[in-house]
Amino acid sequence: MGDDEEELTEEVAELFRIETNLFEYETPLCKEFKEFNYLLKIDEDVLTSELSGFKTYEEFKNTWYYEWNDQIPWVFDKLWDDSVLGSNSVMRKRKTMIMLRKRKRMSNGPIIAHNPLGHAQFFITLHIRHPQNVLPITPQKRREKMKLRDGKSRREMKLRNGKRFCTTVSTGRATIPPKIPKIDYTNSLPDECLTLIFNFLTTTHDRNNSSRVCHRWLQIDAQTRTHLTLNARERLQRFIPQIFIRFDSLTRLVLHNHDYNSYYSINDKDMILITSMCPNLTRLKIIECRRITDSGMAVFSKNCKKLKEFSYDHCWCSDSGIFELLDNSSQLEVLSVTRLFIYSDDSASFCAGLAAKTLKVIKLRHVHSERVFQPLIIGAKNLKRLKLVDCDGNWDRTLEMIPDDNCLVEVHLEGVNVSDVGLSSLAKCRDLLVLRIDNYRCTDVGLISVAENCRALKKLYVGRRSEIGDSGLIAVGRHSVNLQELILNGVEATCVSLEVIATNCQNLVRLELCQSDTITDVEVMFIAEKCVALKILCIEECGVSNNGIEAFALGCPNLAEIRVTKCKKLTREVKDWLIARRGSLVVEIECT
């Protein structure tokens, strides 16, 4: 050591005197006091818990830090040189003693040095910092904790549970461990593969969340989105250019003014702008847009050359606007009109237009004039589905004028003025598969005519507003042997007709009997015995008791689900009884 070594007093020597060396390796402090044989006294807990397994200081010198009374003295921010012990080493020891004498606070620590002069305890803590025990800190917090002094660096961070602060003594400039970059494997995917993945996102919620991941995903979502639903309020006007520039691949568009009582919606100019920016539009649905007029529909329909499906619901344009669209849409296949209240004076002069050649589906609901759509229904040579719901006017004439070589496979007549004359006219539909009847003027006569001629019938629904009884159902049971679904709502059927149906219709898989007092245990037992292929049975508000339901414990071997509701004679015990005997059967029984 240097000459300054002689200036140390005996008190200082006594302060750092320890009889034995507990280390098996050399630390920086050991090198400083090696000539005096003074070593630090380490508590046993520190040796066993924190220092076990470490061999040399050289291997772990970057993991040491020191605490004096749970605080870091300035002297330890200086460099501890392992190879050169110059004259400044003794000066550091002198500064250490000055700091020890200034500290009077008492605390607990694993290393205790006694000062015989002041009789005060000072604590020097020697730790090895384990990186796995240090909580991660953010880059911003790391920059705040970093302090540079005299070309040396000190990094502070909190240990787990906030027990204490630690300081790492190092040489040179501060070095921050490099962050391990997170690999985004989707970046290696080409746009074509990512596009296919986005096509599997069927819900709008999933697409919206995925588009927020990054700019690339936002762009892919805009390029692949084909369906868009917008609230067609007036405030949408200023956003129309931005929306449809972003989504330039739309094929389906729904414009719905959700405020039913509000007149202010998008107008004709907005519709013209929207359709001009969506040249590939194939499906368009307009709901409660009351500011769209006939002239606007005539203009924007010219922009929709590829339109295949058009839905109009409660708008204020008249039938003239509808036929302007039909005349401009040469590829239209589906037409749905709901709540058409305004009619022009020259509606009798309307023709089918270009759409009559391609129309396959016509849905009319709350339409109050049959003369408007009569030419369209008659002239649609490829019409397959016709739905008339709650429409005024006399529709018998329209059904009679349907040509014999029609392609109708599905007809719905609900709440329309159709008698047996119009119903019998459907007998010419040889390919009819689905028939729904719910009208006051339809009787057994019309149903018998249909059953005798439409042998391919698979689904039949008879509503409570009709006057159909056993005679019509017997004809269905005898001639419609391919029947798969039968729904009788409010029909006074008895065991006579149901026995015929259960015996002949061996492909019957679904049967619903609702609101009929004539359906009793006898009829249900016939069904359980004869309907071998039956899979779904629904009974509602009928005179069925526990005895009739118990017949399904052995009957209908293919039955998968039975639902019985609002039957006054049933008790809750029959449900548990049936489940105990047919565990695979789904049983839903609601007793009043």
From TrEMBL:
InterPro entries: COI1_F-box, F-box-like_dom_sf, F-box_dom, FBXL15_LRR, Leu-rich_rpt_Cys-con_subtyp, LRR_dom_sf. GO terms for biological process: SCF-dependent proteasomal ubiquitin-dependent protein catabolic process. GO terms for cellular component: SCF ubiquitin ligase complex. It comes from the Eukaryota. Residues 189-230 form the F-box domain. This is VIER F-box protein 2. It comes from Artemisia annua (Sweet wormwood).
